[in-house]
Amino acid sequence: VKNATSATQRGTLYLAVRPFQVNPPWQFLNTQGGFAPIDSLSYDGRRVRVNGGRTLIPMTRPSAFGAMSFDQGNLVDLLRQSRLPSALKVSDALGAASGALAWHLTLPPKSDTIIDVAIPLHDAGPSCLDVGSCGAGWTTNSLSTVETLWNEKLNRVTLQLPRSASRVAASIRANLAYILINRDGPAIQPGSRSYERSWIRDGSLTSTALLRLGQYDEVRDFINWYAGFQFDNGKVPCCVDARGADPVPENDSHGEFIYVVAEYYRHTGDRQALERLWPNVSRAFAFMDSLRLSRTTSEYRTGDKRVFFGLMPQSISHEGYSAKPMHSYWDDFFALRGFKDAAEIARLLGKAEAFHYADVRDQFRRDFYASIRLSMTRHGIDYIPGAAELGDFDATSTTIALNPSDELANLPQPALNRTFQKYYETFVKRRDNPKSWDGYTPYEWRAVGALIRLGEKKKAHEVSDWFLGHQRPEAWHQWAEVVYRDPLKPSFIGDMPHTWVGSDFIRSTLDMFAFERESDSSLVLGAGIPGKWLTGGESVGIQGLSTHYGPLSYGIRQKGAEIEVRIESGTRIPPGGIVVRSPHDREPSQVRLDGKLINQGDRDVIVRRLPAIVTFRY
Fold first, then answer.
1. Torsion angle of alpha carbons 565, 568, 573, 579, nearest 10°?
2. What pTM was estimated for this model as a whole?
3. By C-alpha distance, which of 305, 275, 211 is closest to 550?
4. Residues 177, 202: Cα–Cα separation, whole Å
């Protein structure tokens, strides 16, 4: 509280505790819209207790406190008269109790004072409060401790971007923080209200974002916790909440679990964890294999059911099919990822099952791609469908084929290209004709990463720039689950921030800087960095990005007609090398590697030793 005048001022600061409306009625999922009830309110001289549990702790001792029930009138009317209710404790059957703390202040001219209040989001309050030993510096020291903790977590990976792209870097930090805040112990959750539960689907992809940003412990804890809910038959539950594991069959879950186990190992090299989780992986593999085999009986070898041969059975893992289960290719891409990773884990651990796992992987891939081709023929379409029986267009779902399934080299290329060309056409129509759309889900961030991996950098940034314009509130640097053209429209928005959406943003944006390419075991750098980021003479780079080959740090700077890429040591060289891509879309006139003229490729240079300097001249 500041006194900006040249005279001594006396006044009272009130801090009211009231049953405000928190959720509107259209926020209906897993929580009832309406006000936050206060059934009881009390003050014992140290803590204000709300509903007997939550506490508000005035670290600066107040002058007074008072509480009242709804029947006793309006608290604000009393405060306007500089009065407080007389009761220190009150109950209200209507859930509309209210109260206030008061601090009587006398401030000399041009002075200020700070009132400290602690509101723990857990059961325990400051331990020093019980013995009255917190002292004047407790708040400052506590705040400093928390700031240090968050700065360490949020700065393990840092981006250097031009001022024009500062929102990108700020959004990476913010969404990483939101992911960590939304965690409930080891449980990774997409939200804290509507989505107060943990899905292996959301958790596996959010874990990928966390791993790339160096948050290894959180992913390890999530995997170990989720593994405890696996069913005896190997089935991995789709989600877990306070009631336990959800028994609903969603056939993407098993592959997602195996994937996150493998991905954790690829980033950390934690072989002990791999050994410990092998029984979970092998049981998940066996269950997934049994699902595959259930679609290889004679009834699936001919006729209308031939398109389902060898696939995962129908499920509702894809929310678009919740009304009626479908043979969703979303499930199959995750199953393929799981089969691939289980085979690799078995090989790494020297398990006897490794050859059998590899055979199953290869057979499943053959049957899966045969189904895609047959579905396209039956429905007369030129894109990859979302479900075998529907022939529907769902590019956001198909992104899984590229990341994390990493099947770019194996997919039918014309159909793959047409899928994302069709997505881009739909996007342009929506962008250029605002009245053509009402709302969308920002899970579409996955399309940005897909476009980058397809070499469509310009399109990727058009889509990215549009999505960045839909952060609401703007200063939060985040997205709700549903974004509406009219931000004031009273409609369901899911949780906000929605951190599965946030993880899709993080993964796609980091793909601009680097991604692993399974087809040739390489690490691709700079595929999504646009030339416009360099035109102002500012540097672009990333420090400490976690990859399958260790931490990656590099910087790019334009000097006249040359673009210089400096890659620091510390990253292991992949079998296929480090592929460095020029930010410009045209071919360079000259390329040098560590000062030596080379004739590799056009805009790609393969680096096999670090540190390295790649120079593109135009």
1. -10
2. 0.94
3. 211
4. 16
Tallying the residues shown for the chain, one arrives at 618
- Structure tokens, 419: 């899928």
CB-based contacts of 349, cutoff 8 Å, min separation 6: 274, 275, 278
Alpha helices per DSSP H over 234-383: 253-268, 271-293, 329-348, 354-379
pLDDT, one tens digit per residue, over 100-154 is: 999 999 999 999 999 999 888 776 666 776 655 777 788 888 899 999 999 999 9
Count of CB atoms situated within 10 Å of the CB of 206: 31
DSSP tag of 8? -
With 0-12 / 13-18 / 19 or more C-beta atoms within 10 angstroms meaning exposed / middle / buried, residue 175 is buried
Find where tokens 């030793």 sit.
609
| H or E segment and range at residue 221 | helix 216-227
Q: Across all residues in the chain, what is the average pLDDT?
A: 95
Residues sharing a CB contact under 8 Å with residue 327, sequence separation 6 or more, in sequence order:
307, 308, 311, 312, 313, 314, 387, 388, 389
The SS3 assignment for 66 reads strand
Nearest to 104 by CA among 86, 84, 90: 84
Q: What is the CA radius of gyration of the chain?
A: 28
DSSP string, 391-404: --B-HHHHGGGTTT
- For tokens 């703007």, name the residue: 474
Q: How far apart are CA 507 and CA 528, in angstroms?
A: 12
Q: How far apart are CA 364 and CA 339, in angstroms?
A: 8
**How far from the centroid of its chain's Cα atoms is residue 500's Cα?**
4
Q: Is the pLDDT of residue 196 over 70?
A: yes
